[in-house]
Predict the 3D structure of the following.
Amino acid sequence: MTAQEFRINKVLGAILGTLLVVQALRIIDGAFLPSKPHEVALNAQQGNETTEAADDPQFDKLLASASAERGAQVAKQCGVCHNFEEGQGPKIGPDLYGVVDRPVASVKGFNYTPALKAKGGKWTFAALNKWIANPRSYVPGTAMTFAGISNEKQRADVVAYLDTLSKNPVPLPKAQ
C-alpha cells in the first residue's frame, strides 16, 4: 500500500467514523425527546378524556383467563425502571404498586411529562393495555422509551399481575 492510498483510507475512515457517531447521537437524542411539540399541544387541545372508551371485549376475555404468575415473569423487564413493592418510590419511572385504577400521572415526587399530565383519567385495564402495547403511540410526547409488548396475551398477563400489586385489587372481568 502506498502512502497516498494509506492517507485516503485514513480520511475515508475518519469520515465514516464521524457519520456513525453522528447517527448514534441522533438515535440516542430521539429516544429522550418527546415527539413533536405541536403534537403534545394538539392532544391537550383536543380535550383530556377522563374515562377510557369501552373495554375491548377480546382483551377482557384474555384478562379473564390471564395469569398473574406469567405476568410477573414478563414484567421483570419493567423492574429496570419501576419498583413493584409498596413504599419503594420511583426509579427512572414511577412506582407501579397500586397502579390499577390510580389516576394517571399521580405518583407524588415523580416528574411526569406534560403529555402524560395532560392525558388525565385513570389507569383502567383498557388504558394499561394500550399503554403497555405502545406507550409512545398511546401518549405521544411521553418520555418512556419502552417499545411495548405486542403480544396481547402477555399484556393481559402483565395487567393481571399489576392488579395484584395492591391492598385492594380491582376484580378482573369474568369469563363469558
Notes: The radius of gyration is 21 Å. Residues 34-54 have pLDDT under 50 and may be disordered.
